[in-house]
């Protein structure tokens, strides 16, 4: 499958992704500033249609405004003003999170502002009533949103600087978008089998145990309610893909794929392919090198089954996500 084929297979309306407004450059921070992210604005805007949200402005806190933070009050975490303890935005932020989770059912991912008491996904500082940070948690808006949409791929902009986390997030966004399209078009046993077939090697790389469980789930297609089966499958799918993939797991999949073309290669080409996979395993070359060579061999010796595998082309080549893996 060429890059053109990737785009042909994924022709659809733009992929909508939620995002904290400040990351796009909107001046909505408590100090009237922004946190414009270069990668988001310079690269990802070419592939995603961003849906900006600033929950603090939305609930009426205004700009500029008094900063807020997470504070543990007895057994509960509240969102309070840093200077004015009578400022408590906990309930409005939670309610707005639930509201937006219902309104944004069509988004396929969410990029959140790291460390924000409203938008932070994790590791947001929680202060004691005396003003000392002790533990960490998630922002009030994001916590409520994610509870309503637990399958949605979410990530913080700071973590997108890590090549593994960046590729993992974008893979999940594309897969979840395909799943949403499938459900919208109408889930049937045959369509579920087709979807699973195309994602088999991607799942094998992320989580072998889930790969086996999902195979058994798909085998039940046509024997039970497709709606219930689809919900169970989607939960397993997104949970499996959330696991990071290391070199060992990629090598396992690369070797499986080599098995589909090995008999068509002469001794020299086969030895070269094995050596390139070994070099990747040792960290001497990035993942894109064995992937490119495998695609070369499959263009010369096509396999209908392999051509359906999103593992070889999980996202547009222009994103160059596997060049640093």
The count of domains is 3
Number of strands: 8
User: What is the arithmetic mean of pLDDT?
Assistant: 94
Detail the poorly predicted runs: 1-8
Indicate the radius of gyration in whole angstroms: 22 Å
Element string (H = helix, E = strand): HEHEHEEHEEEHEHHHHHHHHH
Strand order of the largest sheet: 2-1-5-8
Number of helices: 14
Measured between the Cα atoms of the first and last residue, the distance is 21 Å
CA-based shape: elongated
What layout of secondary structure does this protein have?
Blueprint: H1 3-9, E1 15-20, H2 38-42, E2 48-53, H3 55-58, E3 68-73, E4 76-81, H4 90-103, E5 110-112, E6 124-127, E7 133-137, H5 140-148, E8 154-156, H6 163-185, H7 189-198, H8 200-206, H9 208-219, H10 226-241, H11 247-261, H12 267-281, H13 288-300, H14 304-307
Parallel strand pairs: 1-2, 1-5, 3-6, 5-8
Antiparallel strand pairs: 3-4, 6-7
């Amino acid at each position: 499958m060429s890059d053109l084929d990737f785009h042909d297979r994924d022709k659809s309306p733009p992929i909508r992704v939620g995002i904290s407004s400040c990351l796009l450059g909107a001046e909505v921070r408590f100090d009237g500033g922004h946190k414009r992210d270069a990668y988001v604005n310079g690269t990802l805007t070419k592939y995603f249609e961003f849906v900006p949200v600033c929950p603090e402005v939305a609930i009426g806190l205004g700009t500029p405004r008094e900063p807020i933070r997470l504070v543990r009050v007895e057994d509960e975490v509240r969102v309070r003003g840093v200077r004015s303890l009578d400022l408590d935005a906990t309930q409005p932020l939670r309610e707005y999170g639930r509201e937006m989770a219902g309104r944004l059912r069509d988004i396929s991912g969410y990029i959140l502002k790291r460390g924000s008491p409203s938008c932070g996904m994790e590791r947001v500082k929680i202060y004691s009533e005396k003003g000392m940070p002790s533990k960490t948690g998630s922002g009030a808006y994001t916590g409520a949103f994610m509870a309503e949409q637990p399958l949605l791929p979410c990530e913080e902009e700071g973590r997108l600087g890590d090549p593994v986390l960046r590729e993992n997030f974008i893979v999940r966004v594309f897969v979840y978008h395909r799943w949403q399209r499938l459900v919208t078009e109408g889930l049937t046993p045959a369509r579920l089998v087709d979807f699973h077939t195309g994602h088999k090697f991607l799942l094998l790389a992320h989580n072998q145990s889930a790969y086996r469980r999902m195979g058994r789930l798909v085998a039940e297609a046509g024997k039970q309610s497709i709606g219930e089966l689809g919900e169970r499958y989607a939960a397993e799918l997104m949970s499996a893909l959330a696991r990071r993939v290391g070199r060992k797991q990629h090598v396992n999949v690369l070797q499986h794929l080599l098995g589909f073309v090995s008999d068509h290669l002469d001794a020299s080409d086969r030895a070269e392919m094995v050596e390139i996979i070994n070099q990747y395993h040792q960290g001497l070359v990035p993942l894109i090198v064995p992937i490119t060579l495998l695609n070369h061999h499959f263009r010369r010796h096509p396999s209908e089954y392999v051509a359906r595998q999103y593992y070889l082309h999980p996202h547009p080549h222009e994103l160059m996500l596997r060049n640093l893996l």
